[in-house]
Amino acid sequence: MSPVAVLIGPPGAGKSTVGELLAERLGVPFTDSDSIIEADQGRAISDIFLSDGEAAFRVMEREAVARALAEHDGVLALGGGAPMTEGVRADLEGHPVVFLAVGLAAGVRRVGLSTARPLLAGVNPRATFSALLQERLPVYRAAARHEIATDHLEPAAVVDAVLAALSPEADRAGR
Ligand SMILES: Nc1ncnc2c1ncn2[C@@H]1O[C@H](COP(=O)(O)OP(=O)(O)OP(=O)(O)O)[C@@H](O)[C@H]1O
Ligand SMILES: O=C(O)C1=C[C@@H](O)[C@@H](O)[C@H](O)C1
Ligand SMILES: [Mg+2]
User: Fold this and answer.
1) Of 11, 57, 122, 136, most Cβ neighbours within 10 A?
2) What is the DSSP string of 84-136?
3) 103-116 pLDDT tens trace
4) Positions at the binding site for substrate
C-alpha cells in the first residue's frame, strides 16, 4: 500500500484543493499530513506551533508522513514545509512525488492573510513568502519527479497536468 500521488509545494500551491480533485477523479481517498496531525493531536496546526513550537511540529509531521506513505493508498498532500525535513525527503524516495509550483504574486494572492498559516502570520507576509520560496524551491525540485507550474492554471487543469505527468508511470506499474 502506498500513495498513487504525493503532492508537495509551498502554501497556496493548491496541494489540498488539487489533491481532493485528483483523488475524486481517480476514485481514491485523499489525505493531507496537516489533517492527520490535527486529528492525532485534537488541535489546530496553529495551536501546535504556538504551544509546542515548530521543531516539535516537524517531529510530529515526519511521523505522520511516514505513516501515510506506508498506509495511505490514495492521493497524499504534504504540509508545505514537510520536504524541508531530511528524514521526510529520505522517506519520499521511490514515491510518485509531484511538485506544485506557484510564483510569489499568485502564491500571496491565494494565501491571503489567513492566520491559519503560522509561518506567514508575521508583519510582512510577502517578504516571508518570498524568502520561503527561494529557500525551498531547490528542495522541492530535488524531492519531486514532476513539477507543474500552477500560476495560470485552474485547479481542474492542474489535475489534468498531474495525471498527464503520472500516466506513463501508472502504465509501467500496470495500473
Ligand atoms: N490552481 C489554482 N488556481 C487558483 N486558485 C487556486 C489554485 N489552487 C488553489 N487555489 C486557491 O488557493 C488557496 C490555497 O489553496 P490550498 O489550500 O489548496 O493550498 P495548499 O497548497 O494546500 O496550502 P497549505 O500548504 O497552506 O495547506 C485556496 O483558496 C484555493 O481555492
Ligand atoms: O509551509 C509550512 O512550513 C507549513 C505549511 C502548512 O501546510 C502547515 O504544515 C504548517 O503551517 C507549516
Ligand atoms: Mg493544504
Assistant:
1) 11
2) GSHHHHHHHTTS-EEEEE--HHHHHHHHTT-TT-GGG-SS-HHHHHHHHHHHH
3) 998 998 888 755 56
4) 34, 58, 80, 136
CA–CA gap between residue 19 and residue 17 (Å, rounded): 5
Number of the ligand closest to the Cα of 107: 1
Determine contact, residues 116/46, Cβ cutoff 8 Å.
yes
Write down the pTM of the prediction: 0.94
Residue ranges of the annotated binding site for Mg(2+) are 16
Q: Is 128 in the pocket of ligand 2 (CB under 6 A)?
A: no
Which pLDDT belongs to residue 112? 76
Q: Whose CA is nearest to atom 3 of ligand 2?
A: 81
Taking the centre of ligand 3 as the mean of its atom positions, its distance from the CA of residue 71, in whole angstroms, is 20
Q: What is the number of other CB atoms lying within 10 angstroms of the CB of residue 93? A: 8
Q: Amino acid identity, residue 137?
A: L
Task: Please list the residues that pair with 107 across neighbouring strands.
Answer: none
